[in-house]
Amino acid sequence: MSITASTLYRDSYNFLRNQLSSVFALSLLAALITVILSWILSPSADQLDAIGQLMNNMAGMSVADMMGFIEQQVTPEQQSAIFRYSIAALFSTLAGNVILVGGILTLIQLVSQGVRASITQVVTASLPVLPRLILLLFVFSVMFRLGLALLFVPAFLIAIAWSMSPIIACKEQVGMFKAMRLSTRLAFSHVRLVAPGVLMWILAQVVLMLFVGALSALNPMISAVIFGALSNVITAFILIYLFRLYMKLHV
Fold this sequence. Notes:
This is UPF0259 membrane protein GW579_01605. Belongs to the UPF0259 family. The protein has about 250 residues and is mainly α. The chain has twelve helices and no strands. The chain has one domain (about 10-250). About 80% of the residues lie in helices and about 0% in strands.
């Protein structure tokens, strides 16, 4: 029987509905880790205000103009603050993503084996796969952001090519490069099934960002946790979709 995207969506939705409390708990945990690490590692409030002002001044500039502006107009202290803010954002996001992806993939496998596990047990069971995911998700995140900085199409192709690499790395226990290579081959061989899921993930994240303003009345950290948790639930759904697809392709 042929595999269809609608069947995969339906199966993924049923899994998400049945495991909603566990998925939301993992999504909330990952969001909390991201926000807390970002708060700990970020520059001071004054430096963040200065960075915000610089970003406003650079709005609408090309990449070349931005680089020239930074070299000529930005002081070494401000450059250091920008660098620290970038590292804090990247590291905190990476930590949250690793916890989320490792936890969700472990949850799926435990449920598939008929094991009813608490969140603590899921996180504990996921610990062995987390080191395998760190470098993989770091490379994926950097390349995806570079693709977005250039055009949407490169980022979309990168997301499709490596979409199943975390699943392959955890399920088959292979290294980063082999997981990416196998994912690329598998994804483009079944692009009609992978592309809709990836596109839905990107569009859902964009739509979610449009509603960030609705959280402006809340404390910034609380709104960041809420936004992060909702974003993580979307990512979890796509992981479930891709895991289901991967398992069907290997029946």
